[in-house]
Amino acid sequence: MDLMKIAQDAFATGKEHPQFKSGDTVTIAYRIKEGNKERVQQYRGVVIKIGGHGAKKRFTVRKMSDNIGVERIFPLESPFIDSITVNKVGKVRRAKLYYLRALTGKKARIKEKRVARA
Predict the structure, then answer these.
(1) Cross-strand partners of 50
(2) pLDDT given at position 63
(3) SS3 for 103?
(4) Which of 56, 75, 109, 114 is the most interior residue, by most CB within 10 Å?
(5) For the whole prediction, is pTM greater than 0.85?
(6) PANTHER family, per this entry (predicted)?
(7) Distance, CA of 94 to CA of 48 (rounded, Å)
């Protein structure tokens, strides 16, 4: 089992990402390789699900692109994730927000949690 731990540490990116949960709006800076060129693409949306644990933890982000819902699953330990920025902290009462798939427009909005600033 010790060999397994060494292998996991080798593949771990070691990057520290901010804490976020379902309902938060996040921007992911994701590196995309096209041919021999590499660029960073910003992907901004609402986290609708966080699954897995440990090195296999992944999260699903949903965004609207020209009135079409687009969902993308990101592994949290992916080496292609440059950074994750939490834009809004959502106020939700459940962990999996699948009901957002059926909603459009203003109904699909999530209330923002008010944070007391010192």
Answers:
(1) 59
(2) 92
(3) coil
(4) 75
(5) no
(6) LARGE RIBOSOMAL SUBUNIT PROTEIN BL19M, RIBOSOMAL PROTEIN L19
(7) 10
Question: Averaged in consecutive runs of 10 residues, what is the pLDDT profile of the chain (118 residues)?
Answer: 64 74 93 92 94 91 90 92 92 92 86 75
Q: Is 52 left (phi over 0), alpha (psi -120 to 50) or beta?
A: left
What residues are paired with 65 via a beta bridge?
68
Domains of the chain: 23-100 (2.30.30.790)
* Model pLDDT, residue 71: 93
SS3 call for 10 = helix
Distance CA 73, CA 50 (A): 9
Closest CA to 58 of 67, 69, 48: 48
Ranges of beta strands (E only) in the chain are 25-34, 37-51, 58-65, 68-75, 81-88
Residue 8 parent element (H or E): helix 2-11
Residue 68 has what pLDDT?
Answer: 87
